[in-house]
């Protein structure tokens, strides 16, 4: 009988594994190199390091970049796009928007289908979903034949108004498969059952483009795992923060696109629950980028729409904001002034201290020069950093600015911290949120090195560094549930809504979710359903999702109740509402969750303050040299406390505790940093 | 190229300067986020027809964020003109000003500018300002007339007016505004959104001064301006000295058949550039007149596209640029000239700027794009729910090619910024319209070694009685031109009931009645080509035929192509 719950997060450089032992509540982690040519190799290598036999596994989930890589490298499947005659070019016109105002050389995002592979098919529905022109079977058979002759196996079918009535798309699928049984067909009403034909088409094309790639990968991984004795189903993380069985993921591969970052946000939600801190700002700083996500009222901030390299994607997704600031951000001169980022040294040549040819100073070089990184303990000692090279790079720029090298090194960090804090402030203003009401959760290699400084800029008093900050996404995946999202249009003025009809639609969606969960082996009493209705003011294009309880549909005042809720949500988001204006429904959504049990670490005890292995080294803060305590994270027991200046090191991350801050280890093993400076 | 300047005059360290520089930019972003978040009408929060700026006490930009390209650096002037009118003693804490007069702000009356002085203690330290397009300020036709001949037909006109005193709203002024709008509720919402922008700017600038001190902030500011100026000067110095000219004409002014010319003479002398527009046409009877402030803004946009386009705008940007206009002309309108379509000559001006400098900046410039505004206003008494409706649709078109690349196809025009087209499914669900075709316009791109982008076709059928259409299409007489031997793109064409006995062609019209079953077919122009078409790579021509951007006939005629 298996006893290990295992999560694997396949990132661009490393594959992280975290295993939770249900017998004693302990965790084990592994980090192995990602194997881009065949991701399963890295995964299996990591698993071999982690466990003796796959039948020890009681539950397994993984986040994969397979689909994302295929997209980013444009190595997906050639797709034939079938569109409504008259609207064939919708995908290539791409709504005509230009996102760089002063760029004379602007180009739209590179489409995934060539125009010649876009075929117009006769057949038209009107705005009520009623047929005004029948579907041309002959044209479909010709298109399928053409695809077969040219060796195109992936079809995207996106017809106008299919979100109201899928009859033509379903008919198209039947005919294509008759002509060409090996074809992989993506239908727009399944990929994204929402209006706006360009966005729906784009989602469908992306699904078709990566489907065969993801399918082959999942087949390969499933086969290898079964050979190793795995007896439980393989699960895949979704961009929404829920998980799917591998079987379901094959049918909706776009849902897996951004599964890694979603794991981080779910880790944030888990921290919120464990600490009863409902509002968190999760920051992940890596080599080239700084990613931020929000946990509001205990839930990850989720949106129904996103863009990948400018191509829109309609699906529920955890909102990740990316800012061009990371360890590799370059410091340089422009017109006699200092600039830091967004240009990055990346991994090649990388920071000067990597000794791969980089000579310009980076954020990592500045941290190293200031003593905040131990050159012998970077990536747990896997990489030796060259302090002299970092110093030379910083000194060379400092000379041009007429500054002392150490002064510049700290200045580089001040600039990058200020930029990150300002970006966070702008994002939160857009959302109608005050950052000071939040605590920061810091993870990723460099997140905890900068978090306290960001917190000071944003007047946030507390920073939480969770356990395994370097494998936080994988840790987060162990805390999620199975999830299925279904949506259907319901376009009506709120005052004219038919409650019975809405209830029927929501029940159907929930049943669809229940069926999916049942097929994945979830017992009925482990199912939870939440409902949303998308609402907006009449004549607006964009809507806000408003939660509702389906029992509220029995209330004759239903329309007024949800309208009030909508006005409140609108006010929170936009800073004003218009209670006297008419509102309308756009679509209804049901999300079903299946609880598969979760990893619950037992509380740590045996608090023995100050029993940790402590050494010290010289670190610069506020232009002065301090003797900072240096502790190894593993040696810090619950209750242990370190007053800044201090550094806490672990193989995958470094936490900097500045002067005036105190770090305490709580009963869950989290490192909690508090600002103890005089506050008003 | 290393750009530098003498930093001897500054006492602030480079780190503080850089943090303050980012803080100014971030303050402008936050002001913009405040506006988008709290505006009531979609022209602001969707079409981004707005701009914000944080200015210092000398009305120079600390930070700015523009939603529309032609709103670049056009807010300073409003504050200067207010001071010119009422004296430098006019400012007081808590006062908020409103104005929209076209001859002062430069734009049409629908664009409302709101600004407030910022005090730190007793001292005037700056201004926060925003401009945004309101839904309706009482023009004779909704959403805007295409045939106005005097400004009085275009809405209520405000010189600098206090809308708040001591942070208290002046109810009498708000009442006047509301009485002159068909949408008074939305109007007040947008007014409050812009007041919120003013307060955000004040709060952010005060926070910067709290933290660094007024003296340090000002020294950093001077250094930041000096850096921007040095960058722009170096870029201008790199352009060969000389006098460069270009001209082009608008089709007409919407009410007469006269041509109107934008004529530009650019003198580059060392690190300075003078743009002389004074030979341009005199005032038009129709609504294409433009206030001087916007003519200057358009020159700044044209400059920015070629000079440091990715660098933020500060009070040091544009210092090397001077603009000369002739008072009372098309580009420096005076009472009572109509200004609703003030931006049509500006779209042309911006393209002409690149044409003039093409000989000395061949690797940077692009051929002309399809122009503006290519707009259809369809109004009617009954939408799908039986209510009065206004549908504004802007047809996207082709952009010009440049050295190393074809121009983009089906892209929104320059003056309309980043606006999206209207999805067919939304149009048909709301309005009594059926979109019969939305397609790339084959053979519309200007041929060239690097061809222009293609125009677009949008054809729709009217499904109700009591519907009217207004049109504003341009550049049939000066279609998007090519550069260095590249050909022009095809001009726009609009037909009512094409292929029928009563087919009619027109490019501008005001409230033409339509009936159920009428068909409107709109075709936007293509972009100009760059370089001799005969030098185009044979494989690229073959690919264009395969992709359907050009036909074999055009390939033969323009490119001398024969299939291999």
Task: Briefly summarize what is shown.
The complex is a heterodimer of chains A (680) and B (564). With 680 residues, chain A is an alpha+beta fold. Chain B has a seven-stranded antiparallel β-sheet, sandwiched between helices. A five-stranded antiparallel β-sheet of chain B has the order 14-15-20-17-18, covered by helices on one side.
List keywords for this structure.
heterodimer; A: 680 residues; Nucleotidyltransferase, domain 5; Dna Topoisomerase Vi A Subunit, Chain: A, domain 2; 5 domains; 9-stranded mixed sheet; B: 564 residues; alpha+beta; 2 domains; 7-stranded antiparallel sheet; 5-stranded antiparallel sheet; 12 helices; 20 strands
Task: Please specify the SSE layout and strand pairing.
The complex is a heterodimer of chains A (680) and B (564).
Chain A (H helix, E strand, L loop, with lengths): L3 E7 L3 E8 L4 E8 L5 H12 L6 E7 L2 H7 L6 E6 L5 H4 L24 E4 L2 E2 L5 E3 L3 H14 L3 E5 L8 H13 L4 E4 H4 L5 H31 L6 E4 L5 E3 H6 L7 H17 L4 E6 L4 E7 L2 E2 L1 E7 L2 E8 L2 E3 L5 E6 L2 E8 L18 H7 L17 H15 L3 H27 L7 E5 H15 L3 E4 L6 H6 L4 E12 L5 H21 L7 E11 L6 E5 L9 H17 L8 E12 L19 E8 L2 E9 L8 E3 L2 E5 L2 E5 L3 E5 L5 E5 L5
Parallel strand pairs in A: 1-4, 4-11, 5-6, 5-9, 9-10, 13-21, 21-22, 28-30
Antiparallel strand pairs in A: 1-2, 2-3, 7-8, 11-12, 13-14, 14-15, 14-18, 16-17, 19-20, 22-33, 23-26, 24-25, 24-26, 27-28, 29-32, 30-31, 32-33
Helix pairs in contact in A: 2-7, 4-5, 10-11, 10-12, 11-12, 12-13
Chain B lengths: L13 H25 L3 H4 L4 E7 L4 E6 L9 H11 L9 E4 L2 H4 L5 E10 L2 E11 L27 E5 L2 E2 L1 H9 L4 H29 L1 H24 L4 E9 L9 E10 L2 E5 L15 H15 L14 E4 L18 H15 L17 E6 L8 E6 L29 H7 L2 E9 L13 E8 L4 E6 L20 E4 L7 E2 L2 E7 L4 E5 L14 H10 L4 H8 L5
Parallel strand pairs in B: 10-11
Antiparallel strand pairs in B: 1-2, 1-5, 3-4, 3-6, 4-5, 6-7, 8-9, 9-10, 12-13, 12-16, 14-15, 15-20, 16-19, 17-18, 17-20
Helix pairs in contact in B: 1-6, 1-7, 5-6, 6-7, 8-9
Task: Describe the protein's architecture and organization.
The complex is a heterodimer of chains A (680) and B (564). Chain A is α+β, with helices and mostly antiparallel strands and 680 residues long. Chain A has five domains: 4-71 and 215-253, Nucleotidyltransferase, domain 5; 75-211, Dna Topoisomerase Vi A Subunit, Chain: A, domain 2 (3-Layer(aba) Sandwich), CATH 3.40.1360; 258-325 and 338-346 and 406-481 and 606-680, Nucleotidyltransferase, domain 5, CATH 3.30.420; 329-337 and 347-405, no CATH class; 482-594, Dna Ligase, domain 1, CATH 3.30.1490. Helices cover 32% and strands 29% of the residues of chain A. Chain A is built from 16 helices and 33 strands. In chain A, the strands form eight sheets. In chain A, strands 13, 14, 15, 18, 21, 22, 29, 32 and 33 form a nine-stranded mixed sheet that branches. A six-stranded mixed sheet of chain A has the order 3-2-1-4-11-12. Chain A has a four-stranded parallel sheet with strand order 6-5-9-10, sandwiched between helices. Chain B is of the alpha+beta class and 564 residues long. Chain B has two domains: 7-230, no CATH class; 366-564, no CATH class. Chain B contains twelve helices and 20 strands. In chain B, the strands form four sheets. Chain B has a seven-stranded antiparallel sheet with strand order 2-1-5-4-3-6-7, with helices on both faces. Chain B has a five-stranded antiparallel sheet with strand order 14-15-20-17-18, with helices on one face. In chain B, helix 1 packs across helix 7 (214-237), helix 5 packs across helix 6 and helix 8 runs parallel beside helix 9. The mean pLDDT of chain B is 94. At the A-B interface, helix 3, helix 7, strand 20 and helix 12 of A face helix 1, helix 6, helix 7, helix 8 and helix 10 of B.
């Amino acid at each position: 009988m298996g006893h290990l719950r295992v999560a694997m997060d396949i990132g661009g450089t490393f594959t992280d594994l975290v295993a939770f032992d249900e017998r004693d509540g302990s965790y084990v982690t592994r980090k192995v190199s990602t194997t881009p040519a065949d991701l399963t190799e890295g995964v299996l290598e990591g698993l071999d390091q982690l466990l003796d036999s796959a039948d020890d596994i009681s539950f397994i989930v993984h986040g994969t970049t397979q689909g994302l890589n295929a997209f980013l490298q444009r190595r997906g499947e050639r797709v034939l796009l079938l569109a409504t005659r008259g609207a064939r070019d919708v995908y290539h016109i791409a709504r005509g928007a230009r996102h760089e105002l002063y760029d004379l050389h602007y180009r739209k995002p590179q489409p995934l289908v060539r125009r010649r592979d876009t075929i117009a098919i006769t057949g038209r529905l009107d705005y009520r979903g009623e047929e005004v022109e029948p579907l041309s079977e002959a044209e479909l058979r010709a298109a399928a034949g053409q695809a077969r002759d040219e060796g195109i196996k992936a079809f995207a079918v996106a017809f106008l108004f299919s979100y109201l009535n899928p009859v033509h798309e379903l008919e198209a699928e039947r005919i294509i498969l008759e002509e060409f049984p090996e074809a992989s067909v993506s239908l727009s009403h399944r990929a994204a059952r929402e209006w706006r034909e360009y966005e729906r088409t784009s989602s469908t094309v992306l699904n078709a483009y990566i489907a065969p790639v993801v399918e082959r990968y999942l087949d390969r991984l499933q086969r290898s795992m079964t050979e190793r004795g795995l007896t439980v189903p393989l699960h895949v993380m979704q961009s929404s923060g829920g998980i799917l069985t591998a079987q379901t993921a094959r049918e909706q591969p776009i849902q897996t696109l951004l599964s890694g970052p979603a794991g981080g946000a779910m880790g944030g939600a888990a921290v919120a629950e464990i600490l009863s801190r409902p509002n968190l700002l999760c920051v992940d700083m890596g080599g080239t980028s700084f990613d931020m996500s929000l946990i509001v009222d205990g839930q990850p901030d989720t949106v129904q729409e996103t863009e990948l390299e400018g191509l829109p994607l309609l699906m529920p997704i955890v909102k990740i904001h990316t800012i061009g600031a990371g360890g590799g951000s370059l410091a340089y001169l422009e017109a006699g002034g200092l600039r830091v980022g967004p240009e990055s040294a990346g991994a090649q040549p990388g920071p000067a201290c990597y000794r791969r040819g980089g000579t310009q100073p980076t954020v990592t070089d500045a941290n190293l020069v200031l003593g905040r990184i131990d050159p012998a303990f970077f990536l747990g000692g896997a990489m030796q950093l060259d302090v002299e090279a970092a110093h030379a790079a910083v000194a060379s720029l400092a000379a041009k600015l007429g500054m002392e090298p150490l002064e510049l090194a700290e200045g580089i960090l001040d600039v990058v911290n200020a930029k990150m804090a300002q970006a966070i402030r702008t994002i939160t203003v857009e959302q109608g949120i005050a950052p000071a009401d939040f605590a920061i959760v810091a993870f990723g290699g460099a997140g905890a090195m900068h978090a306290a400084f960001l917190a000071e800029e944003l007047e946030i008093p507390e920073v939480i560094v969770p356990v395994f900050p370097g494998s936080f996404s994988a840790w987060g995946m162990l805390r999620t549930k199975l999830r299925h999202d279904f949506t259907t249009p319901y376009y009506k003025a709120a005052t004219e809504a038919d409650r019975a009809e809405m209830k029927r639609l929501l029940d159907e969606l929930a049943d669809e979710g229940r069926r999916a969960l049942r097929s994945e082996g979830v017992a009925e009493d482990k199912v939870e359903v939440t409902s949303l209705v998308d609402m907006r003011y009449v004549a607006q294009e964009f809507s806000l999702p408003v939660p509702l309880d389906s029992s509220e549909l029995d209330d004759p005042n239903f329309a007024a109740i949800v309208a009030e809720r909508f006005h409140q949500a609108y006010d929170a988001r936009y800073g004003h509402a218009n209670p006297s204006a008419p509102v309308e429904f756009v679509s209804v959504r049901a999300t079903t969750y299946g609880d598969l049990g979760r990893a619950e670490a037992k509380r740590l005890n045996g608090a023995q303050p100050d029993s940790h292995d402590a050494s010290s080294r010289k670190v610069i803060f506020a232009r002065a040299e301090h003797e900072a305590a240096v502790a190894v994270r593993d040696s810090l027991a619950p209750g242990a406390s370190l007053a800044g200046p201090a550094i806490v090191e672990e193989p995958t991350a470094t936490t900097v505790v500045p002067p005036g801050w105190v770090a305490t280890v709580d009963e869950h093993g989290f490192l909690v940093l508090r600002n103890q400076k005089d506050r008003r | 190229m290393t750009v530098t300047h003498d930093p001897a005059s500054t006492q602030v360290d480079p780190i503080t300067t850089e943090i303050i520089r980012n803080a100014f930019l971030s303050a402008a972003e936050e002001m913009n986020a405040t506006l988008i978040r709290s505006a009531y009408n979609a022209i602001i929060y969707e079409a981004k027809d707005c701009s914000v700026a944080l200015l210092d006490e000398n009305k120079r930009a600390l930070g700015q964020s523009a939603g529309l390209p032609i709103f670049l650096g056009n807010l300073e002037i409003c504050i200067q003109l207010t001071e010119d009118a009422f004296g430098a003693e006019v400012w007081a804490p808590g006062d908020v000003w409103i104005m929209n007069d076209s001859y002062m702000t430069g734009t049409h009356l629908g664009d409302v500018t709101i600004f407030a002085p910022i005090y730190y203690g007793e001292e005037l330290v700056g201004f926060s300002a925003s401009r945004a397009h309101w839904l309706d300020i009482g023009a004779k036709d909704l959403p805007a007339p295409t045939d106005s001949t005097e400004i009085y037909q275009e809405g209520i006109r405000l010189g600098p007016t206090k809308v708040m005193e001591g942070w208290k709203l002046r109810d009498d002024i708000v009442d006047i505004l509301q009485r002159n709008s068909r949408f008074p509720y939305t109007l007040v919402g947008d007014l409050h959104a812009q007041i919120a922008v003013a307060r955000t700017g004040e709060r952010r600038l005060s926070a910067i001064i709290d933290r660094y001190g007024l003296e340090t902030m000002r020294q950093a500011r001077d250094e930041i301006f000096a850096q921007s100026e040095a960058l722009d000067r170096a870029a201008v110095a790199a352009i060969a000295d000389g006098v460069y000219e270009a001209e082009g004409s608008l089709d007409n002014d919407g009410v007469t058949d006269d041509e109107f010319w934008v004529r530009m003479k650019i003198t580059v002398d060392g690190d300075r550039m003078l743009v002389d527009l004074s030979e341009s046409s005199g005032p038009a009877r129709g609504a294409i007149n433009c206030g001087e402030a916007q003519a200057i803004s358009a020159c700044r946009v044209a400059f920015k596209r070629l000079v440091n386009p990715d660098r933020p705008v500060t009070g040091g940007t544009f210092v090397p640029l001077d603009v000369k206009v002739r008072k009372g002309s098309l580009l420096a309108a005076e009472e009572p000239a109509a200004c609703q379509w003030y931006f049509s000559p500006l779209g042309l001006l911006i393209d002409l700027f690149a044409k003039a400098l093409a000989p000395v900046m061949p690797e940077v410039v692009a051929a002309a794009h399809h122009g503006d505004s290519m707009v259809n206003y369809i109004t009617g008494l009954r939408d799908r729910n039986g209510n009065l409706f206004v549908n504004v649709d802007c047809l996207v078109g082709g952009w010009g090619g440049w050295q190393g690349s074809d121009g983009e196809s089906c892209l929104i025009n320059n003056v309309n910024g980043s606006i999206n087209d209207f999805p067919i499914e939304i149009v048909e669900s709301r309005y009594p319209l059926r979109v019969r075709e939305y397609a790339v316009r084959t053979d519309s791109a200007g041929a060239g070694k690097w061809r222009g982008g293609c125009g677009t076709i949008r054809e729709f059928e009217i499904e109700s009685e009591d519907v009217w259409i207004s049109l504003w299409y341009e550049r049939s007489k000066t279609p998007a031109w090519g550069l260095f031997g590249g050909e022009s793109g095809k001009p726009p064409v609009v037909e009512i009931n094409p292929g029928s006995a009563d087919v009619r062609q027109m490019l501008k019209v005001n409230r033409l009645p339509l009936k159920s079953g009428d068909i409107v077919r709109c075709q936007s122009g293509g972009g100009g080509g760059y370089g001799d078409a005969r030098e185009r790579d044979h494989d690229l021509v073959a690919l264009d035929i395969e992709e359907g951007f050009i036909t074999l006939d055009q390939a033969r005629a323009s490119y001398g192509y024969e299939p291999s």
